[in-house]
Amino acid sequence: MTTARGAEGQSADLRIPAKLAAHPSVRAVLARRAAGDVASPPAVIDAAWLRELCLAAGADDAAAVSLDHPDLAGEREHAQSALPGTRTLIAMAFRMNRDNCRSPARSVANQEFHQTDEQANHAARSVTQALQDAGYRALNPSVGFPQEMDRFPSERIWVVAHKTVAVAAGLGVMGLHRNVIHPKFGSFILLATVLVDAEVSEYGQALDYNPCIDCKLCVAACPIGAISKDGAFDALACTTHNYREFMSGFTDGRRPWPTARTPPTTAPASPTPRAPPCGRA
User: Tell me: domain 44-200, CATH 1.25.40, correct?
Assistant: First the structure.
């Protein structure tokens, strides 16, 4: 171990192996430090600057929430695992075109969902990059389609619970249908979250009212009865129905192929009638 020296040969407050100390990249970094060119970012991120950054990136609404928020107790372990040192979660909402989502044409509804999904991921990545350029450590988990299947079934397969974070940040309230209801855009939104290793000067406040009027229309509209009047929700039924629709009901009429030794004795059964799509993938 040797004491690294700056460009003027002065001792630096860093002890590193001699081989690394002689490396051009290390010498360049030490020279910048000695010249005072490496400035630390503000310990607290300005909330107004952060919100403007999110809106400029493409978000329709944004707010930050501290990882110490009591409603995020279940997220702390996961957030710290994803980005050690996380202090704040930045929630962003992206509105979708309502009638596209309502369309019974799967191609129309899916296009709207996926276009907004891409917009949200792109915006979250842009915010993360800007925070990184400002000197912070930041990370943006995928907006949807979590793929951490190596954790299944003992652990959850998503990095961060976007809905939980958005509600805590004040972007809306979870409705009976298990979507976050935004006070302006309603249920027609997608959510993104950015983790950052700094505090923010002002955090969002949870809504003091519930936009859900408990009309039970979602209960009546759900084609498979995944939503119950008493608040129960069958997530597996919802997921199975939506992903089955991606195959246009192909699996409905699928039967095992008969072998030469066991010829079919009856005609194949008719496909099971399909429930109409719910309008969103």
Answer: no
Of the candidates 91, 96, 88, 89, which has an alpha carbon nearest to the alpha carbon of residue 61? 91
Strand partners, 63: 91
Give residue-wise pLDDT tens across range 234-276: 988 888 887 776 655 555 554 444 444 444 455 445 454 444 4
**What type of residue is 278?**
C
Length of the chain as a residue count: 281
Instruction: Give the three-class secondary structure for 210.
Output: coil
Question: To 10 degrees, the CA torsion angle through 183, 188, 194, 198?
Answer: 0
Answer whether the bond into residue 153 is a cis peptide, omega within 30°. Answer: yes
Please check whether residue 86 is in contact with residue 256, taking contact to mean a CB–CB distance below 8 angstroms: no
What's the rounded Cα separation, in Å, for the pair 179 and 166? 11
Tokens matching residue 151: 């954790």
Exposure letters 215-231 (e unless 16+ CB within 10 A, then b):
eeebbeebeeebbeeee
d(CA 187, CA 173): 10
Question: Which pLDDT does position 258 carry in this prediction?
Answer: 45
**Cα dist from 95 to 49, 69, 98, 251, whole Å:** 22, 26, 9, 33
pLDDT digits (tens, 9 = 90+) for 139-170: 999 998 777 888 888 888 899 999 999 999 99
Tell me the whole-structure pTM to 2 decimals.
Answer: 0.78
| Contact residues for 277 (Cβ-Cβ < 8 A; gap 6+) | 104, 106, 109, 223, 242, 245
Q: Spell out the domain ranges in the chain.
A: 44-200, 217-251
